[in-house]
Amino acid sequence: MFGVIGWIIFGVIVGALAKLLMPGRDPGGFIITMLLGIAGAMLGGFLGRALGWYGPNDGAGFFMSLLGAIVLLGLYRMLFVRRTV
Questions:
Q1: How far is the first Cα of the chain from the last one, in angstroms, to the nearest whole number?
Q2: What is the distance between the alpha carbons of residues 2 and 73, in angstroms, rounded to a whole number?
Q3: Closest CA to 41 of 21, 12, 1
């Protein structure tokens, strides 16, 4: 099981990959990307376990973590990006 440092490192990696897959301007910096990556990893793990794809002692799965981070990054952009007319 990951410790806190492991989740932070994993979140940074997943958040960076999500940012690479969804280029563009974000209203946040590196810290927001890291936090969205960590939250995406946790969300992906929770959903995978809730759907029965993973057991309680299995990892969340890199794909589900990345998918969760991409979804959260997209939601963050929709909610907090200022639109200029």
A1: 48
A2: 23
A3: 12
Please say whether the beta carbons of 11 and 31 come within 8 A. Answer: no
The span from the CA of 83 to the CA of 85, in Å, is 7
Distance, CA of 15 to CA of 23 (rounded, Å): 12
Query: Given this model, what pLDDT does residue 76 score?
Result: 84
Q: How far apart are alpha carbons 59 and 65 in whole angstroms? A: 10
Burial zone of 14 (CB within 10 Å; 0-12 exposed, 13-18 middle, 19+ buried): buried
In Å, how far are 19, 55, 73 from 41, measured between CA atoms? 14, 16, 12
- The answer to pTM > 0.85 is no
